[in-house]
Write a structure and sequence with these properties.
Elements: E1 5-14, E2 27-37, E3 40-46, H1 47-53, E4 58-69, E5 71-77, H2 91-104, H3 109-125, E6 128-134, H4 139-152, E7 155-159, E8 161-162, H5 175-189, E9 195-201, H6 209-221, E10 226-231, H7 235-244, H8 251-257, E11 265-269, H9 275-284, E12 287-290, H10 292-297, H11 305-310, E13 314-317, H12 329-341, H13 351-358, H14 360-365, E14 383-386, H15 393-399, H16 404-414, E15 420-425, E16 428-432
Parallel strand pairs: 1-4, 5-6, 6-7, 7-9, 8-9, 9-10, 10-11, 11-12, 12-13
Antiparallel strand pairs: 1-2, 2-3, 4-14, 14-15, 15-16
Helix pairs in contact: 3-4, 4-5, 5-6, 12-13, 13-16, 15-16
This protein binds guanine (GUN) and zinc ion (ZN).
Zinc ion binds near residues 75, 77, 230 and 320.
Amino acid sequence: MTGPVQILRASIFNTPQNPFDFSDALVAIEDGGLAVAEGCIAACDDYSRVSRQFPDAAVRDLRGSYLLPGFVDTHVHYPQVRILGGLGYSVLDWLQGLTLPEEAKLADTKYANQISGEFLQQLKSHGTTTALVFGAHFESAMTCFFEAGGQSGLRIISGLVLSDRGLTPALQQTPEAAYEQSKSLIRRFHRKGRLAYAVTPRFALSASEPMLQVCEALRREDASLHFTTHVNENPREVEEVARLFPWAADYLAVYERYHLAGRRSIFAHNIHTCDSQLHRLSVHGAAIAHCPCSNAALGSGIFPMKHHLDARVRFALGSDVGGGTGFGMMKEALQAYLLQRVAPQAMTLTAAQMLYLTTRAGAEALDMDAEIGDFTPGKAADLVVLQAPQKSPLAGVLAAKVDPARALAAIFTLAGSECIREVQVGGEVIYDIAAN
Ligand code: GUN
Ligand code: ZN
């Protein structure tokens, strides 16, 4: 360690192990010290021990606040920030009635620029530090977004959305154009700073077989690319996919045929699934973006979490803005908790599992857990400084000095963006509530 060391002194929560496998996985340190050097975690322990380890370090006294790893949103649509709150639809009607007309507006570069800025600001102010972002259908809108994303300091994985049927014509491109435009964006933005590229067909309903072949070719030409799309979200969608791809045994089989299910493949939803698809997802090492607010808001259904756990299919949380209800990942964890309480195979999530699902599970789903997701020394210092506003219900609960798991549960139940005081990525402050 050569550079200067800074110690953040606050209460600390993180889950370096999987709390679905280990009941004692929650690391909670009441008077904690998080030492950061050269953008990475140098130590995470009791403040007294960390200050002895780094006696010359500068100390920031944040007592009364909580340090959590930065949140990871594994499914969020950048062009949909202005259609949040469009209730009363199910997904296919919502696409036709509300979403696709809004997405067509991103053909205008000026509008795309404005929406990019709004969207990235919302990620930051909600404590999200890494996001797999479903992009726009226009190369120009993706250029705006990657340029703004590069300047935001966030870790952003995104890509041009590909479709050549079933949507409004304004959002469709030929497979040839899809290939050329994707290649150009990959050359310009993949692995540039904190940006990375994801091959992104919208869903099987709007992709012909030649378009899926384009996706396969892009991934074959660069194995470091991510892949993301939707699967098994809504019964009508599943039926339509079966009609369009009569040779496919089920929805997942469409993507498998083009070798699109593997590590770094993230499929949103997977509600109306089956044992065979779950088994294959597990074998592929693919991950699911579970979007509980969206699943309820669009009436899509209740995610079969117990089945995913039993089949050892990885999953993490996604806000699915704008089918979801906002950017807050803690709200997603709370919604997952609420829906699993009443699911047919009911489960009671612990606070540790809720924290894991918003942080480390997302890092694992994106194959980034060697770098981010918890406070293990050597990982990047991606973190949220959280503090309950005075006189808020959360401040009252925390003042009662409840035990750590109860405090964390109260944070996940009650904390919104008003509690996100500061956000750091790689030790760099990218958001300060006082400056916003
Ligand atoms: N399926 C295809 N496109 C979309 C979308 O934008 N949102 C959701 N929730 N499902 C989709
Ligand atoms: Zn989506």
